[in-house]
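ok trying again, last paste got cut off:
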Amino acid sequence: MKKILLLSMLFFAITSVNAQNTEKELAQNTERAAKKLNDTIGDGWRKKGTITFLFNQSSFKNWVAGGEDNISGNLGLNYDFNYKKGDLTWDNKILASYGLVQTKNSNFEKKTDDRLEFNSVLGKKAFGDWYYSFFVNFRTQFTKGFVYGTDANGAEIRTENTNFLSPGYLTFGPGLFWKKSDNLKVNLAPLTSKITLVDKDYTSVPGYVDGAYFGVDTNKSLRYELGFYASGYYKFNIMENVSAENTLNLYSNYLEDPQNVDVDYTLAIVMKINKYFSTNLAFQAVYDDNAFRALQTRQIFGLGINYGF
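nice, full thing came through this time. structure:
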């Protein structure tokens, strides 16, 4: 729980410290975006996206310190399509990424990333920068996930543990949306439904214990929760050609253990080299006691080949 609070405090500390310093920048960005909107997109839509390919490779020969040959690649999509006209705003984002690594001494290619996510927030002007809102978030993965181990002879084996839509998360509800710009926004939804979808095959195995697989009971394929949801998004420039994109999602289930807050924090840092090349760092920390009773983290770092559209 201390780690969860630390992550939450870190996100909002970053936001508060940088918000004042970047207020002028955000205003300028908003003005430029508005001008671009009026000049190029008359129907109220603003659309932008980036496709990124990250590549890493290591090779060793007679290397006394040790090491294992490996090669990995990660393909990602980050696409925004936002609408604003009059007192109506509608923000949409698609995030998709998939990565594999192959090491010399492993029998299997292993995933370094597997993510498919859609976010949508519809808002109607309330007052100031606040909107009455309704949001939808959907998350799953593309392919099967495995737990790796060894057999009695020491050979590497794997056991299927997850798959497409197992789990799948559908979260939605009404709330209030605060939007300073496309780069700084917060959504608060006090009556949020969360549906966890799984393949029934995983909950029907002999000896299965209720809730053992992503909180879903025996012979069931979904779990329903009702709770409070908060999300924040903040993107800013650390320095010239170096940007940081922060996303924080929090969820508390009223119906069961509301003190156990689900946390999903993502940090993406892009150090731009030129129009097509950059060095990219992605860090994600997740806490969800229905999935795993500890903090989950992942980190990806590498040279990126980028295509913007």
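cool. The two ends are 40 Å apart (CA to CA). Helices lie at 2-21, 23-40, 200-203.
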